[in-house]
Amino acid sequence: MQKCDVLVIGGGPAGASLAYYLAKKNLRVVLAEKKKYIDRPVRCAEFVPANITGLFDFKISGINNQVRILETYCASSKKEKFRLFAQTAAPGFILDRDIFVNDIVSKYENLGGKLLKCKKAVAAKHDSGYFIVALRKSFSQNYSYIKTRIIAGADGPLSFTGKLISVGENAGACSTACSTNTAFMYAIQQNPAILPNQPYCHRVFFVPYIRCGYGWIFPKTESINLGIGQDSASELKSTLGIFVNHLVSCGLLNPNLADFNKNKKIKVITGIAPVSGIVEKPASEGLILIGDAAGLCNPVTGAGIFNAIYSARLASETILKALKHGDLKILAEIKQAYEKELGPSINRALERKALMTKNWKDYMPAFPGLVRQSWVAFKDYWK
Ligand SMILES: Cc1cc2nc3c(=O)[nH]c(=O)nc-3n(C[C@H](O)[C@H](O)[C@H](O)COP(=O)(O)OP(=O)(O)OC[C@H]3O[C@@H](n4cnc5c(N)ncnc54)[C@H](O)[C@@H]3O)c2cc1C
Fold it and tell me: How far is the CA of 366 from the centre of ligand 1 (A)?
Protein backbone atom coordinates (compact mmCIF):
# COMPACT_ATOMS: atom_id res chain seq x y z
CA MET A 1 0.00 0.00 0.00
CA GLN A 2 1.26 3.46 -0.93
CA LYS A 3 2.17 5.64 2.08
CA CYS A 4 2.33 9.42 2.29
CA ASP A 5 2.28 12.36 4.69
CA VAL A 6 -0.62 14.13 2.99
CA LEU A 7 -3.26 12.84 0.62
CA VAL A 8 -4.79 15.79 -1.24
CA ILE A 9 -8.23 14.86 -2.57
CA GLY A 10 -9.23 16.91 -5.63
CA GLY A 11 -7.12 18.42 -8.39
CA GLY A 12 -8.87 21.79 -8.85
CA PRO A 13 -7.14 25.13 -8.13
CA ALA A 14 -7.09 24.47 -4.36
CA GLY A 15 -5.76 20.89 -4.48
CA ALA A 16 -3.22 21.53 -7.24
CA SER A 17 -1.83 24.52 -5.31
CA LEU A 18 -1.72 22.72 -1.97
CA ALA A 19 0.05 19.74 -3.53
CA TYR A 20 2.61 22.11 -5.04
CA TYR A 21 3.17 24.08 -1.81
CA LEU A 22 3.62 20.88 0.22
CA ALA A 23 5.92 19.22 -2.31
CA LYS A 24 8.10 22.34 -2.13
CA LYS A 25 8.46 21.64 1.60
CA ASN A 26 9.65 18.12 0.78
CA LEU A 27 6.60 16.35 2.17
CA ARG A 28 5.46 13.06 0.64
CA VAL A 29 2.26 14.04 -1.12
CA VAL A 30 -0.27 12.15 -3.20
CA LEU A 31 -2.83 14.13 -5.23
CA ALA A 32 -5.92 12.09 -6.14
CA GLU A 33 -8.41 13.35 -8.73
CA LYS A 34 -11.55 11.49 -9.70
CA LYS A 35 -11.65 12.85 -13.25
CA LYS A 36 -9.62 11.59 -16.20
CA TYR A 37 -8.39 15.06 -17.10
CA ILE A 38 -7.30 17.62 -14.53
CA ASP A 39 -9.78 20.53 -14.38
CA ARG A 40 -11.55 19.53 -17.59
CA PRO A 41 -14.21 20.30 -18.52
CA VAL A 42 -13.85 23.80 -17.07
CA ARG A 43 -16.94 24.77 -15.08
CA CYS A 44 -16.06 28.36 -14.42
CA ALA A 45 -16.24 31.92 -15.81
CA GLU A 46 -12.45 32.04 -15.29
CA PHE A 47 -12.02 35.57 -13.93
CA VAL A 48 -9.26 36.02 -11.36
CA PRO A 49 -7.96 39.23 -9.80
CA ALA A 50 -4.54 40.33 -11.02
CA ASN A 51 -2.95 39.80 -7.60
CA ILE A 52 -3.29 36.03 -8.04
CA THR A 53 0.21 36.10 -9.54
CA GLY A 54 1.58 36.95 -6.05
CA LEU A 55 0.48 33.56 -4.72
CA PHE A 56 3.09 31.65 -6.71
CA ASP A 57 6.87 31.69 -6.95
CA PHE A 58 6.66 31.10 -10.72
CA LYS A 59 5.02 32.86 -13.66
CA ILE A 60 1.51 31.49 -13.96
CA SER A 61 0.29 29.90 -17.20
CA GLY A 62 -3.10 30.04 -18.85
CA ILE A 63 -3.74 33.79 -18.97
CA ASN A 64 -6.03 34.11 -21.98
CA ASN A 65 -6.99 37.77 -21.67
CA GLN A 66 -6.30 40.73 -19.46
CA VAL A 67 -9.24 42.85 -18.25
CA ARG A 68 -9.22 46.21 -16.48
CA ILE A 69 -12.80 47.38 -16.04
CA LEU A 70 -15.86 45.81 -14.48
CA GLU A 71 -19.09 47.10 -16.03
CA THR A 72 -22.27 46.61 -14.02
CA TYR A 73 -25.58 46.72 -15.91
CA CYS A 74 -29.05 46.71 -14.48
CA ALA A 75 -32.67 46.34 -15.69
CA SER A 76 -35.81 46.21 -13.54
CA SER A 77 -37.56 43.70 -15.80
CA LYS A 78 -36.99 41.76 -19.02
CA LYS A 79 -38.94 44.42 -20.92
CA GLU A 80 -36.57 47.15 -19.81
CA LYS A 81 -33.23 47.76 -21.53
CA PHE A 82 -30.06 47.03 -19.57
CA ARG A 83 -28.47 50.31 -18.51
CA LEU A 84 -24.82 50.74 -17.66
CA PHE A 85 -24.86 51.42 -13.95
CA ALA A 86 -21.18 51.54 -13.01
CA GLN A 87 -17.69 51.22 -14.44
CA THR A 88 -15.18 50.13 -11.85
CA ALA A 89 -11.46 49.47 -12.01
CA ALA A 90 -11.09 45.71 -11.48
CA PRO A 91 -7.84 44.50 -13.00
CA GLY A 92 -7.63 40.80 -13.59
CA PHE A 93 -7.32 37.95 -16.02
CA ILE A 94 -9.69 35.66 -17.84
CA LEU A 95 -7.89 32.35 -17.69
CA ASP A 96 -7.83 29.21 -19.69
CA ARG A 97 -8.31 27.65 -16.31
CA ASP A 98 -7.47 24.09 -17.33
CA ILE A 99 -4.08 25.28 -18.63
CA PHE A 100 -3.50 27.26 -15.42
CA VAL A 101 -4.29 24.30 -13.15
CA ASN A 102 -2.48 21.69 -15.26
CA ASP A 103 0.64 23.81 -15.16
CA ILE A 104 0.57 23.89 -11.34
CA VAL A 105 0.10 20.12 -11.30
CA SER A 106 3.04 19.57 -13.66
CA LYS A 107 5.23 21.77 -11.46
CA TYR A 108 4.15 19.62 -8.52
CA GLU A 109 5.05 16.44 -10.43
CA ASN A 110 8.44 17.93 -11.35
CA LEU A 111 9.11 18.19 -7.62
CA GLY A 112 8.49 14.45 -7.32
CA GLY A 113 4.82 14.67 -6.32
CA LYS A 114 2.58 11.72 -7.18
CA LEU A 115 -0.61 12.25 -9.18
CA LEU A 116 -3.41 9.70 -9.39
CA LYS A 117 -6.13 10.37 -11.98
CA CYS A 118 -9.50 8.59 -12.28
CA LYS A 119 -9.33 7.91 -8.54
CA LYS A 120 -12.29 8.87 -6.42
CA ALA A 121 -11.93 8.88 -2.63
CA VAL A 122 -14.92 6.93 -1.37
CA ALA A 123 -14.10 5.75 2.15
CA ALA A 124 -11.59 6.34 4.93
CA LYS A 125 -10.77 4.53 8.13
CA HIS A 126 -8.65 5.85 10.99
CA ASP A 127 -6.17 3.39 12.43
CA SER A 128 -3.22 4.02 14.80
CA GLY A 129 -2.48 7.59 13.73
CA TYR A 130 -3.03 6.96 10.02
CA PHE A 131 -5.97 7.07 7.65
CA ILE A 132 -6.46 4.27 5.16
CA VAL A 133 -8.29 5.81 2.24
CA ALA A 134 -10.07 3.76 -0.41
CA LEU A 135 -9.86 5.18 -3.92
CA ARG A 136 -12.21 3.77 -6.52
CA LYS A 137 -11.06 3.72 -10.13
CA SER A 138 -13.55 5.49 -12.43
CA PHE A 139 -16.09 3.28 -14.18
CA SER A 140 -15.02 0.19 -12.25
CA GLN A 141 -15.25 -1.51 -8.91
CA ASN A 142 -11.45 -1.64 -8.56
CA TYR A 143 -10.06 -0.07 -5.42
CA SER A 144 -6.62 1.02 -4.37
CA TYR A 145 -5.63 2.14 -0.90
CA ILE A 146 -3.44 4.93 0.46
CA LYS A 147 -2.05 5.17 3.97
CA THR A 148 -1.70 8.80 5.01
CA ARG A 149 -1.18 10.93 8.13
CA ILE A 150 -3.36 13.76 6.84
CA ILE A 151 -6.25 14.04 4.38
CA ALA A 152 -6.58 17.47 2.80
CA GLY A 153 -10.03 17.89 1.26
CA ALA A 154 -9.82 20.03 -1.86
CA ASP A 155 -12.80 18.16 -3.24
CA GLY A 156 -15.13 21.00 -4.03
CA PRO A 157 -18.57 22.16 -2.87
CA LEU A 158 -19.97 18.69 -2.07
CA SER A 159 -16.85 17.55 -0.30
CA PHE A 160 -16.39 13.92 0.72
CA THR A 161 -13.78 15.08 3.25
CA GLY A 162 -16.28 17.57 4.67
CA LYS A 163 -18.65 14.69 5.29
CA LEU A 164 -15.84 12.74 6.98
CA ILE A 165 -15.42 15.63 9.40
CA SER A 166 -19.18 15.95 9.94
CA VAL A 167 -20.15 12.33 10.32
CA GLY A 168 -16.96 10.26 10.49
CA GLU A 169 -16.31 6.99 8.78
CA ASN A 170 -19.85 6.50 7.46
CA ALA A 171 -19.29 9.39 5.08
CA GLY A 172 -19.46 7.08 2.05
CA ALA A 173 -23.07 6.24 2.87
CA CYS A 174 -24.01 9.83 3.61
CA SER A 175 -26.15 11.81 1.17
CA THR A 176 -25.25 15.29 0.01
CA ALA A 177 -27.50 16.66 2.75
CA CYS A 178 -24.60 16.02 5.11
CA SER A 179 -22.30 18.25 3.10
CA THR A 180 -20.85 20.99 5.24
CA ASN A 181 -21.79 23.67 2.70
CA THR A 182 -25.48 24.43 3.03
CA ALA A 183 -26.33 26.91 0.27
CA PHE A 184 -25.24 27.13 -3.35
CA MET A 185 -25.28 29.39 -6.37
CA TYR A 186 -26.46 27.38 -9.40
CA ALA A 187 -24.77 28.37 -12.62
CA ILE A 188 -24.97 27.65 -16.34
CA GLN A 189 -22.56 28.91 -18.96
CA GLN A 190 -21.76 28.77 -22.65
CA ASN A 191 -18.52 29.63 -24.39
CA PRO A 192 -19.43 30.69 -27.95
CA ALA A 193 -16.70 31.74 -30.37
CA ILE A 194 -17.70 35.38 -30.47
CA LEU A 195 -15.04 38.06 -30.64
CA PRO A 196 -15.68 40.37 -27.70
CA ASN A 197 -16.17 44.00 -28.76
CA GLN A 198 -14.54 45.37 -25.58
CA PRO A 199 -11.97 42.75 -24.59
CA TYR A 200 -10.76 44.76 -21.60
CA CYS A 201 -14.23 44.86 -19.92
CA HIS A 202 -15.85 42.11 -17.94
CA ARG A 203 -19.56 42.73 -17.62
CA VAL A 204 -22.18 41.68 -15.12
CA PHE A 205 -25.96 42.08 -15.50
CA PHE A 206 -28.56 42.32 -12.77
CA VAL A 207 -32.23 41.72 -13.54
CA PRO A 208 -34.96 40.25 -11.29
CA TYR A 209 -35.51 37.09 -13.39
CA ILE A 210 -31.96 35.91 -12.52
CA ARG A 211 -32.95 35.36 -8.92
CA CYS A 212 -30.53 36.60 -6.25
CA GLY A 213 -27.70 36.38 -8.75
CA TYR A 214 -26.52 37.86 -12.02
CA GLY A 215 -25.52 37.22 -15.61
CA TRP A 216 -22.05 37.75 -17.02
CA ILE A 217 -20.06 38.19 -20.20
CA PHE A 218 -16.38 37.61 -19.58
CA PRO A 219 -14.26 38.20 -22.69
CA LYS A 220 -11.59 35.79 -23.87
CA THR A 221 -9.44 36.56 -26.90
CA GLU A 222 -11.51 34.51 -29.34
CA SER A 223 -14.67 33.73 -27.43
CA ILE A 224 -16.78 34.81 -24.49
CA ASN A 225 -17.87 33.13 -21.29
CA LEU A 226 -21.57 33.93 -21.11
CA GLY A 227 -23.57 32.66 -18.17
CA ILE A 228 -25.86 33.18 -15.23
CA GLY A 229 -25.74 32.20 -11.57
CA GLN A 230 -28.87 32.18 -9.40
CA ASP A 231 -30.18 30.80 -6.11
CA SER A 232 -32.07 27.85 -7.56
CA ALA A 233 -31.35 24.99 -9.93
CA SER A 234 -34.76 25.21 -11.58
CA GLU A 235 -35.21 26.74 -15.03
CA LEU A 236 -31.50 27.44 -15.41
CA LYS A 237 -31.38 26.77 -19.14
CA SER A 238 -34.57 28.67 -19.98
CA THR A 239 -33.41 31.64 -17.89
CA LEU A 240 -30.12 31.66 -19.80
CA GLY A 241 -32.17 31.75 -23.04
CA ILE A 242 -34.22 34.70 -21.76
CA PHE A 243 -30.99 36.47 -20.75
CA VAL A 244 -29.41 35.94 -24.20
CA ASN A 245 -32.51 37.35 -25.96
CA HIS A 246 -32.56 40.25 -23.53
CA LEU A 247 -28.91 41.06 -24.36
CA VAL A 248 -29.70 40.93 -28.08
CA SER A 249 -32.72 43.21 -27.69
CA CYS A 250 -30.49 45.73 -25.90
CA GLY A 251 -27.83 45.62 -28.64
CA LEU A 252 -25.34 44.03 -26.25
CA LEU A 253 -25.03 40.82 -28.26
CA ASN A 254 -24.93 40.47 -32.04
CA PRO A 255 -28.39 39.27 -33.24
CA ASN A 256 -26.77 36.95 -35.80
CA LEU A 257 -25.25 35.11 -32.91
CA ALA A 258 -28.31 34.92 -30.70
CA ASP A 259 -29.08 31.44 -31.98
CA PHE A 260 -25.95 30.08 -30.42
CA ASN A 261 -28.22 29.25 -27.53
CA LYS A 262 -29.86 26.59 -29.71
CA ASN A 263 -26.64 25.47 -31.38
CA LYS A 264 -26.00 21.96 -30.11
CA LYS A 265 -22.29 22.20 -30.96
CA ILE A 266 -21.75 24.86 -28.31
CA LYS A 267 -21.15 23.19 -25.02
CA VAL A 268 -23.25 24.15 -22.05
CA ILE A 269 -21.75 23.60 -18.63
CA THR A 270 -23.48 23.78 -15.30
CA GLY A 271 -21.96 23.99 -11.85
CA ILE A 272 -22.45 25.09 -8.29
CA ALA A 273 -20.57 27.43 -6.00
CA PRO A 274 -21.00 27.33 -2.21
CA VAL A 275 -22.53 30.53 -0.83
CA SER A 276 -23.13 29.71 2.83
CA GLY A 277 -19.80 31.05 4.08
CA ILE A 278 -16.88 29.41 5.86
CA VAL A 279 -17.94 25.97 7.10
CA GLU A 280 -18.43 25.46 10.85
CA LYS A 281 -15.59 23.00 11.17
CA PRO A 282 -12.94 23.13 8.44
CA ALA A 283 -10.63 20.69 10.25
CA SER A 284 -10.46 17.91 12.81
CA GLU A 285 -7.61 15.63 13.84
CA GLY A 286 -5.87 14.58 10.61
CA LEU A 287 -8.47 16.21 8.33
CA ILE A 288 -8.42 19.68 6.79
CA LEU A 289 -10.56 21.41 4.16
CA ILE A 290 -9.50 24.02 1.62
CA GLY A 291 -11.16 25.97 -1.20
CA ASP A 292 -14.82 25.38 -1.99
CA ALA A 293 -14.84 22.38 0.35
CA ALA A 294 -14.26 24.86 3.20
CA GLY A 295 -16.94 27.26 1.87
CA LEU A 296 -14.48 29.96 0.85
CA CYS A 297 -16.32 31.26 -2.22
CA ASN A 298 -17.61 34.80 -2.03
CA PRO A 299 -21.38 34.38 -1.41
CA VAL A 300 -22.30 37.37 -3.60
CA THR A 301 -19.93 37.08 -6.55
CA GLY A 302 -19.48 33.29 -6.44
CA ALA A 303 -15.77 33.84 -7.05
CA GLY A 304 -13.59 31.30 -5.32
CA ILE A 305 -10.36 30.67 -7.25
CA PHE A 306 -8.23 33.24 -5.43
CA ASN A 307 -9.53 32.14 -2.02
CA ALA A 308 -9.03 28.48 -2.93
CA ILE A 309 -5.37 29.07 -3.66
CA TYR A 310 -4.89 31.43 -0.72
CA SER A 311 -6.44 28.82 1.58
CA ALA A 312 -4.05 26.22 0.15
CA ARG A 313 -1.18 28.47 1.16
CA LEU A 314 -2.57 28.94 4.69
CA ALA A 315 -3.28 25.22 5.03
CA SER A 316 0.22 24.28 3.85
CA GLU A 317 1.68 26.25 6.81
CA THR A 318 -0.74 24.65 9.28
CA ILE A 319 -0.06 21.15 7.93
CA LEU A 320 3.67 21.69 8.20
CA LYS A 321 3.36 22.89 11.78
CA ALA A 322 1.13 19.93 12.74
CA LEU A 323 3.54 17.38 11.26
CA LYS A 324 6.58 19.11 12.78
CA HIS A 325 5.04 18.97 16.27
CA GLY A 326 3.60 15.49 15.71
CA ASP A 327 0.25 16.88 16.82
CA LEU A 328 -2.52 16.68 14.22
CA LYS A 329 -4.95 18.55 16.50
CA ILE A 330 -3.02 21.66 15.40
CA LEU A 331 -4.91 21.45 12.08
CA ALA A 332 -7.93 22.93 13.89
CA GLU A 333 -6.02 26.24 13.94
CA ILE A 334 -6.95 26.69 10.28
CA LYS A 335 -10.40 27.88 11.38
CA GLN A 336 -8.88 31.01 13.00
CA ALA A 337 -6.62 31.56 9.98
CA TYR A 338 -9.61 31.45 7.59
CA GLU A 339 -11.69 33.71 9.85
CA LYS A 340 -8.85 36.23 10.17
CA GLU A 341 -7.68 36.30 6.55
CA LEU A 342 -10.86 35.59 4.58
CA GLY A 343 -13.65 36.02 7.15
CA PRO A 344 -14.14 39.80 6.83
CA SER A 345 -14.82 39.71 3.08
CA ILE A 346 -16.84 36.48 3.16
CA ASN A 347 -18.94 37.60 6.13
CA ARG A 348 -19.65 40.99 4.54
CA ALA A 349 -20.77 39.21 1.38
CA LEU A 350 -22.97 36.90 3.47
CA GLU A 351 -24.74 39.93 4.95
CA ARG A 352 -25.25 41.46 1.52
CA LYS A 353 -26.50 38.14 0.19
CA ALA A 354 -29.06 38.00 3.02
CA LEU A 355 -30.21 41.49 2.07
CA MET A 356 -30.64 40.40 -1.55
CA THR A 357 -32.54 37.25 -0.58
CA LYS A 358 -34.87 39.16 1.75
CA ASN A 359 -35.73 41.93 -0.71
CA TRP A 360 -35.60 40.22 -4.11
CA LYS A 361 -38.93 40.24 -5.95
CA ASP A 362 -39.92 39.23 -9.49
CA TYR A 363 -40.75 42.81 -10.37
CA MET A 364 -39.08 45.67 -8.56
CA PRO A 365 -39.12 49.29 -9.68
CA ALA A 366 -36.58 49.99 -6.91
CA PHE A 367 -34.31 47.19 -8.13
CA PRO A 368 -31.22 49.35 -8.88
CA GLY A 369 -31.23 50.51 -5.24
CA LEU A 370 -30.96 46.90 -4.05
CA VAL A 371 -28.13 46.21 -6.49
CA ARG A 372 -26.31 49.29 -5.22
CA GLN A 373 -26.42 47.91 -1.68
CA SER A 374 -25.48 44.36 -2.51
CA TRP A 375 -22.93 44.38 -5.32
CA VAL A 376 -19.17 44.85 -4.94
CA ALA A 377 -18.93 47.70 -7.48
CA PHE A 378 -20.75 50.16 -5.20
CA LYS A 379 -19.65 52.12 -2.14
CA ASP A 380 -22.80 51.03 -0.26
CA TYR A 381 -21.58 47.43 -0.41
CA TRP A 382 -18.43 48.32 1.50
CA LYS A 383 -20.13 50.44 4.19
C1 LIG B 1 -20.21 28.37 -13.51
C2 LIG B 1 -19.23 28.84 -12.47
C3 LIG B 1 -18.49 29.99 -12.73
C4 LIG B 1 -17.52 30.41 -11.83
N5 LIG B 1 -16.77 31.50 -12.14
C6 LIG B 1 -15.77 31.89 -11.32
C7 LIG B 1 -14.91 32.97 -11.69
O8 LIG B 1 -15.05 33.59 -12.75
N9 LIG B 1 -13.92 33.30 -10.83
C10 LIG B 1 -13.73 32.64 -9.65
O11 LIG B 1 -12.80 32.99 -8.88
N12 LIG B 1 -14.52 31.60 -9.29
C13 LIG B 1 -15.53 31.20 -10.09
N14 LIG B 1 -16.31 30.14 -9.75
C15 LIG B 1 -16.01 29.42 -8.50
C16 LIG B 1 -14.78 28.53 -8.71
O17 LIG B 1 -15.00 27.68 -9.80
C18 LIG B 1 -14.48 27.71 -7.46
O19 LIG B 1 -14.46 28.56 -6.34
C20 LIG B 1 -13.15 26.99 -7.58
O21 LIG B 1 -13.19 26.06 -8.62
C22 LIG B 1 -12.80 26.29 -6.29
O23 LIG B 1 -11.69 25.47 -6.48
P24 LIG B 1 -11.52 24.11 -5.64
O25 LIG B 1 -10.24 23.53 -6.07
O26 LIG B 1 -11.78 24.39 -4.21
O27 LIG B 1 -12.74 23.19 -6.09
P28 LIG B 1 -13.05 22.54 -7.51
O29 LIG B 1 -12.60 23.41 -8.61
O30 LIG B 1 -14.50 22.16 -7.46
O31 LIG B 1 -12.17 21.23 -7.56
C32 LIG B 1 -12.52 20.09 -6.82
C33 LIG B 1 -11.91 18.88 -7.50
O34 LIG B 1 -12.08 17.75 -6.66
C35 LIG B 1 -12.45 16.64 -7.46
N36 LIG B 1 -13.16 15.71 -6.55
C37 LIG B 1 -14.35 15.90 -5.94
N38 LIG B 1 -14.62 14.85 -5.14
C39 LIG B 1 -13.60 13.98 -5.25
C40 LIG B 1 -13.31 12.71 -4.66
N41 LIG B 1 -14.16 12.13 -3.79
N42 LIG B 1 -12.15 12.09 -5.00
C43 LIG B 1 -11.27 12.66 -5.89
N44 LIG B 1 -11.51 13.86 -6.48
C45 LIG B 1 -12.65 14.52 -6.15
C46 LIG B 1 -13.32 17.24 -8.55
O47 LIG B 1 -13.38 16.40 -9.68
C48 LIG B 1 -12.58 18.55 -8.83
O49 LIG B 1 -11.59 18.40 -9.82
C50 LIG B 1 -17.32 29.70 -10.61
C51 LIG B 1 -18.08 28.57 -10.33
C52 LIG B 1 -19.05 28.14 -11.25
C53 LIG B 1 -19.84 26.92 -10.93
Answer: 34
Total domains present in the chain: 2
Three-state SS sequence of 66-135: EEEEEEEEECCCCCCCCEEEEEEEEEEEEECHHHHHHHHHHHHHHCCCEEECCEEEEEEEEECCEEEEEE
Whether 290 has a pLDDT exceeding 80, the answer reads yes
User: What are 111's strand-pairing partners?
Assistant: none
pLDDT value of position 264? 62
Structural domain span for residue 315? 2-41+98-181+277-348
Cα(138)–Cα(35) distance, integer angstroms: 8
Q: Are 246 and 317 members of one domain?
A: no
Residue of 7, 148, 155 to mutate, ligand 1, most atoms within 8 A of C-beta:
155
Q: Is the pLDDT of residue 107 over 70?
A: yes
Query: Would you state the pLDDT for residue 37?
Result: 97
Same domain, 91 and 190: yes
Atom of ligand 1 nearest to the CA of 304: 19
**Whether 170 and 284 share a structural domain:** yes
Query: What pLDDT was estimated at residue 194?
Result: 84
Instruction: Please indicate, yes or no, whether residues 24 and 124 belong to a single structural domain of this protein.
Output: yes
Q: What pTM does this model have?
A: 0.95
pLDDT of residue 63: 98
Residues with CB under 6 A from ligand 1: 9-15, 32-35, 43-48, 120-121, 154-156, 160, 187, 189, 227, 271-273, 291-293, 297, 302-306, 308
Same domain, yes or no: 110 and 223: no
Whether residues 172 and 223 share a domain: the answer is no
Q: Which ligand 1 atom is at minimum distance from the Cα of 185?
A: 53
> Does residue 40 register a pLDDT over 70?
yes
* Pocket test residue of 8, 44, 144, 288 for ligand 1, highest count of atoms within 8 A of CB: 44
C-alpha 118/C-alpha 36 separation (Å) is 5
* pLDDT value at 179 more than 90: no
